[in-house]
């Protein structure tokens, strides 16, 4: 009788010694009858069968029932493995759900645990989780990029709003009611002229207002000698003015024009005020320089010498003076004024003469 093939031994099956015993019992249950033996022989055969030193050839061949039993065991083991794999995959998904989010991982360097949370394990069952982590990381990159773009746009909008508010809005526009003018005293006429010069700059924001341009406009006012304009935030101006001061009395027909050291007429009077130099100035471009020369000479003189002068004449080149008692004083050019003033005062007080010449102060001449 042909025997069935012997089943392949599984690595999960029990030891051969353990499986041999039930196989014998199964075979005896199917009608196998052993020959009767003597009482003494039965015990010896049992001893041989149970002995581990028995040869393989003495064991009976496995039957069909034994092969089917082995197959059922293998199938049960495969089912158990599939069940364990499903449980492992479920456990991985739960662990990945509790791992740090991709947005948090992008804000710090990746460690081994974070890399494992993003990339997943090397098992084939983690492929779906790996793709999901990659998609999450891509979305996190996009969100980060959009956040940065939105922040940059917001910053640009804020800067533009500030620039408009400071340089173009009426928030810092010049208000004429907040313009203060100092230095003119009670001269309301000149104050009104100064305000009229500032008027074209009204409603211009102070950050865009050029104070130098305002200085130029105010300097055109006749009685303003010097001006200093400063911004007074948020909407005003502070104007400091040095007015012109008359120092010369210039004969003008029947009246006297009161002139400063730049030849500008400040006011007029019917008589020459006391303390001012009675002067005759040339017209045209030489007037300003001539007024400056005469003012410098008048300042260098003492009161004794001034009291003897009735008229100072400047012809554009040299200076001559008319003294009391029809005497004359030739000054020459406007140089060495202090020395000339001292020499002239000594000559007039010590020598009686009709003409005094101090054009060369180290060699004065009288006649």
From TrEMBL:
Spans through the membrane: 144-167
InterPro entries per UniProt: Cell_div_FtsQ/DivIB_C, FtsQ_DivIB, POTRA_FtsQ_type
Domain POTRA: 176-242
Pfam family, one: POTRA_1
Organism from which the protein derives: Schaalia odontolytica
Protein name: Cell division protein FtsQ
Residue stretches in coiled coil: none
A cellular component term, taken from the record's GO annotations: plasma membrane
Ranges of compositional bias, category Polar residues: 42-54
Gene that this sequence comes from: ftsQ
Keyword Membrane annotated: yes
UniProt entry tagged with the keyword Transmembrane helix: yes
Disordered, as annotated region: 1-109
Biased composition (Basic and acidic residues): 70-79
Domain Cell division protein FtsQ/DivIB C-terminal intervals: 252-351
GO biological process, any: cell division
UniProt biased composition (Low complexity): 12-29
Basic residues biased stretches: 1-11, 80-92
The organism's place on the tree of life at top rank: Bacteria
Keywords (A to Z) from UniProt: Cell cycle, Cell division, Cell membrane, Membrane, Transmembrane, Transmembrane helix
